[in-house]
Design goal:
about 400 residues, two-stranded antiparallel ribbon, 14 helices, mainly alpha, 4 strands
């Protein structure tokens, strides 16, 4: 137990920007050690959750060594996600037969341009990003050039001045799409795609000051519901000014995504959980300081809308949509933030690791799987995908 306690003790909680966010910082002269980020009870619980979740995933493996949305049909995204989850467990490494065969299956989906995807399906950015994360986790010399080519492919997916839209028009320097990434063919970019793209590059070792990451940051910042700097985001319909993040760029009169109506004449774009945590971690990956007004505003939103029973601030009838995706980005964002305990706007303190472990323990099925029983949208009714999200989120609590 003493060894475990020593392993999980970390430095005192970050104090930068706390005054602005409303939390009290500890005295600078304090030498009191920080609490362990996770106690023995939750450490035991999370290991059991992860082990049983991986056991379920291993039973879903196809004959070719991959995983998919349907039995017997492997898909590069689910194969990559499962491989990453396995590699982040102490029982598996590159020499494990299940891992080795899994990567051989994943390689079948490699395209000549270095990307990983199904040409007829699209989603080239999403799927390649997940594949990059798996190869980055493997650190296998055998796939060094494969990882490098996949990163190059992702870089080419970013919309830059001079890019062509699907309609064949040139993208100018001031176009709102600059810095963004879309599902494919450089159509309208969105925060989910950009967030996945930045996560992949971050895990592959691309520094936050890289020009591509900084272009992505500029796009991400435009999707924040925040009055300051709004003159630079005139094409985005003004929303609630709450510091949270919306899904996509929208022009006035265009289609509203995540629309929030607050009466006649009040039409804005709703900030909600998964997008806000993506925006939050993306800014941190791009080296934005923790006392930066944009980060403080997003952190204020997180404190205001703290909850794990639903995707925060989604319309009530859709509040369970994307729940497991939310858990996934929630864990990554708060680990990047570096604080063990978050104090919400009411002054209630939350150990995010403990709460995530507890909420996922309640939702885990007897066979070790997870599934979004309330909402099947975005494929979360599929137990392989939902279980991947859950296991990867839980593994963040151990980092």
């Amino acid at each position: 137990m003493k060894i475990l306690t020593t392993v999980f003790l970390i430095a005192a909680m970050l104090t930068v920007g706390l005054a602005q966010s409303g939390e009290k910082a500890p005295p600078k002269t304090s030498t009191k050690p920080a609490e362990a980020p996770i106690d023995a009870k939750h450490l035991s619980k999370v290991r059991t959750e992860i082990d049983t979740g991986l056991s379920f995933l291993l039973k879903q493996r196809n004959a070719d060594g991959g995983w998919g949305f349907a039995p017997g049909v492997s898909h590069p995204a689910l194969t990559a996600m499962t491989l990453k989850a396995l590699l982040q467990h102490s029982d598996y490494d590159n020499d494990s037969p299940v891992v080795d065969k899994g990567f051989k299956c994943l390689m079948k989906f490699r395209q000549k341009n270095g990307g990983f995807y199904l040409p007829k399906e699209g989603n080239a950015n999403y799927v390649t990003s997940v594949a990059v994360m798996a190869f980055a986790a493997a650190r296998n010399p055998r796939y060094k050039s494969t990882l490098s080519d996949a990163v190059k492919f992702l870089r080419c997916q970013q919309i830059v001045p001079g890019s062509k839209t699907p309609a064949g028009k040139n993208v100018g320097k001031k176009h709102p799409y600059v810095g963004g990434v879309s599902y494919g063919r450089k159509g309208r970019p969105d925060l989910s795609n950009v967030g996945m793209w930045m996560e992949a590059l971050h895990q592959a070792g691309v520094p936050g000051d890289d020009p591509a990451m900084q272009r992505a940051l500029a796009f991400v910042a435009m999707l924040q519901n925040r009055t300051e700097g709004a003159e630079k985001r005139a094409f985005v319909v003004r929303g609630t000014d709450d510091g949270g993040f919306i899904y996509a760029v929208n022009r006035k009169g265009g289609k509203f995504v995540g629309e929030s109506k607050g009466g006649v004449g009040r039409r804005g774009l709703r900030s909600y959980g998964s997008m806000t945590y993506i925006g939050f971690k993306s800014m941190l990956y791009a080296n934005v300081e923790r006392n930066d007004p944009r980060v403080r505003a997003a952190y204020g939103w997180i404190r205001k809308y703290w909850r794990l029973d639903s995707n925060p601030n989604m319309p009530e009838g859709r509040s369970k949509q994307g729940l497991f995706y939310y858990y996934h980005v929630f864990a990554k964002a708060l680990r990047a933030w570096g604080r063990n305990v978050i104090e919400d706007k009411r002054g209630v303190k939350h150990n995010w690791r403990h709460e995530l472990i507890d909420v996922l323990a309640v939702q885990q099925n007897k066979d070790g799987s997870w599934v979004n029983k309330a909402e099947k949208r975005w494929f979360e009714g599929n137990p392989v995908l939902a279980t991947c999200y859950a296991v990867l989120a839980l593994q963040e609590t151990l980092k």
